[in-house]
Design brief:
Blueprint (H helix, E strand, L loop, with lengths): L12 E7 L1 H5 L2 H10 L13 H21 L8 E4 L5 E7 L3 H17 L5 H14 L15 E5 L4 H14 L4 E4 L3 E4 L2 E5 L5 H9 L5 E5 L2 H6 L7 E6 L15 H8 L1 H4 L1 E10 L3 H4 L8 E5 L6 H8 L3 E6 L2 E5 L6 E5 L12 H16 L4 H10 L4 H4 L4 E7 L2 E8 L4 H14 L6 E5 L7 H14 L2 E5 L10 H13 L8 E2 L2 H10 L6 E5 L4 H10 L3 E2 L2 H22 L1
Parallel strand pairs: 4-8, 4-9, 5-8, 9-10, 10-11, 11-12, 16-20, 17-18, 17-20, 18-19
Antiparallel strand pairs: 1-3, 2-3, 5-6, 6-7, 12-13, 13-14, 15-16, 15-21
Helix pairs in contact: 3-4, 3-5, 4-5, 6-13, 6-14, 13-14, 16-17, 17-18
């Protein structure tokens, strides 16, 4: 039951995943009789279990939905039918206005498919059409039409950080801001309800909070696929990127399919609003083809083709020119907002992902009408510590004999985010320092992705260990995850990869063997509170923007010296 805009329709819809094994296997004559009963003339079903039969099944099931609709006395119904990676499974979707009748229709379709091998479809179609006609209508969808501005953020990586930055900038403008995310519901920076609210219920809870003047909604793939989007429209949308994650779940097997899911968010942005798109990601930039809103792209490269194309179409762009976050408009000089070194989240430009998140947040804030000076203030004052960005690139100094090591706690969970984490860690190492990495994986990722995490981590780090996440095994065992991560590490020649039962145990082991100047990076999902408590108990302090700036400068000086020596 999709309660709002979704992958198939811009309104509430029913999604059916149907087993068509029976229809796929029946003789051609049986398939033709079924086609004739539902008004599908001149059908060519093809041989049983052939590719032609699968294509016939897609067309026939769509026609079956329309036939039952017509024979039950309902008005014309829109239908979407799609294949899946399994030739015996298809997806059918149709809009709904009344919950109970729409559900009765769904079971009726399945009942007809079950009857096809027995050849009794004439009677069954008559019976189910009568049942749909007699069904009580039931409740209507709960999709909300917002009365305040809504900024909706989606993407694979950076959703939470970008959402938090936008909310922080809006608060710098004095607005009362509600924000929904994977962490909970926040109002003016205070947690009012814990839990994962990146689905449709999150938007509803934010909009129900008294006094909220602006809603920022983090919109995840799972919520779009399983429940739909909880609001009928948004005023500004942001798509951060599309990278490999959650593939193989809910019928989404490719990056192109994942991008189509994410595109639902900008697709429902109102015509007078703005769709903020990552101009460096071709799958995101391609969403310009489906939006009604005005395009606003962001890119780290001021000469990116995406910027030129969007400006030529009258859109906007945000980029980096001479180290300044700058806004571009057609037939106008660039407007430099703030230097990257003065935006703490970018770590003096070291974190490429957070540079992009800052560009996206600045674009969205300006697009929703926040004044330029308030945007600049918000970017300057949003810091990478737990206070503002809990669990995302939180950086600490932990005492070691003769100095301190650096600890980075991050929610890295896929290839792109792990590469970003190790890039930041390498950029904070003191001269002669090492990178010690705490790897981890959740159980519902593919074997290929899990092995890739092991390979990426082992290639980048001097010391690698595994910290298990019992809460996120999701059908796998710890031994299976260890085997996959170690297999990936072995591809780059690393075979010594110890495992620890918890993230805290892994952190303790890595810090215990660290030396001054080392960087310990931990992929943290399950035990943020316990990890932060452990750090506090062992004298760790959050790095201020000034401390981070000095660490980055020291590491860059080391790299410059090494390059000069090599020359």
């Amino acid at each position: 039951m999709l309660e709002g805009p979704n992958l198939y329709f811009p309104r509430a819809a029913i999604k059916l995943t149907l087993d068509i094994s029976g229809l796929a296997a029946v003789p051609e004559d049986t398939a033709r009789r079924f086609a004739a009963r539902i008004g599908l003339r001149n059908a060519r079903p093809g041989a049983p279990d052939s590719g032609f039969r699968q294509r016939f099944a897609l067309r026939a099931v769509g026609r079956l939905v329309r036939a039952i609709t017509a024979e039950s006395g309902a008005t014309r119904l829109a239908v979407r039918v799609r294949p899946t990676s399994d030739p015996h499974r298809i997806v059918v979707a149709y809009p709904w206005v009344h919950r109970n009748r729409a559900q009765v229709m769904g079971t009726a379709i399945a009942e007809v498919l079950d009857a096809i091998p027995g050849g009794d479809t004439d009677r069954v179609v008559d019976e189910v059409a009568a049942r749909v006609a007699a069904a009580e209508p039931g409740a209507k969808p709960h999709t909300l039409t917002p009365r305040i501005p809504v900024v909706a953020v989606t993407g694979t990586n950076g959703k939470t950080t970008t959402s938090r930055m936008i909310a922080h900038i809006a608060r710098a403008d004095g607005r009362h801001v509600g924000w929904s995310s994977t962490d909970g519901i926040y109002v003016d920076g205070e947690l009012v309800e814990a839990g994962d609210y990146s689905g449709p219920s999150g938007a509803g809870r934010v909009l129900a909070q008294p006094g909220v003047q602006l809603a920022v909604t983090e919109t995840a793939r799972g919520g779009i696929l399983l429940k739909g989007i909880g609001v009928a429209r948004n005023d500004v949308s942001v798509v951060t990127n599309v990278t490999a994650d959650h593939l193989g779940l809910h019928g989404i097997d490719t990056l192109e399919q994942l991008a189509e899911v994410k595109s639902v968010v900008p697709k429902i942005t109102r015509r007078s609003g703005w769709a903020v798109l990552n101009g460096d990601d071709p799958r995101v930039l391609a969403m310009r083809a489906v939006i009604k809103a005005q395009p606003w792209v962001f890119s780290r490269d001021p000469d990116a083709p995406a910027i030129r194309v969007v400006l030529d179409d009258g859109g906007r762009a945000t980029t980096v020119i001479d180290g300044w976050i700058s806004v571009l408009a057609p037939n106008a000089d660039p407007d430099p907002l703030v230097e990257l070194v003065d935006v703490p989240m970018t770590l003096s430009g070291l974190s490429r992902f957070n540079v992009e998140n800052a560009l996206a947040a600045a674009s969205a804030a300006l697009a929703v009408g926040i004044p330029r000076d308030r945007v600049v203030e918000g970017l300057r004052t949003f810091e990478p510590g737990p206070e503002h960005n809990w669990g995302r690139l939180n950086i600490f100094s932990v005492p070691r004999t003769g100095g301190a090591a650096t600890v980075i706690i991050d929610n890295a969970h896929n290839e792109a985010s792990l590469e970003s984490l190790t890039e930041v860690a390498a950029g904070l190492r003191a001269p002669g320092g090492r990178l010690l990495l705490g790897l981890g994986a959740v159980g519902d990722r593919t074997e290929e992705l899990t092995e890739a995490l092991g390979e990426i981590g082992a290639r980048a780090a001097d010391v690698v260990a595994i910290g298990h996440k019992k809460k996120y095994l999701r059908g796998r065992t710890e031994e299976e995850l260890e085997e996959l991560l170690r297999a990936g590490a072995a591809r780059v020649g690393v075979t010594d990869v110890p495992a620890y039962p918890t993230e805290v145990d892994c952190l303790a082991a890595l810090v215990g063997q660290s030396l001054p100047g080392d960087v310990i990076a931990l992929m943290t999902h399950a035990e943020h509170h316990a990890v932060f408590a452990w750090l506090e108990e062992h004298g760790a302090t959050v790095d201020s923007p000034d401390v981070l700036r000095e660490k980055v400068r020291a590491a860059r000086a080391q790299d410059s010296g090494a390059a000069s020596a090599g020359t």
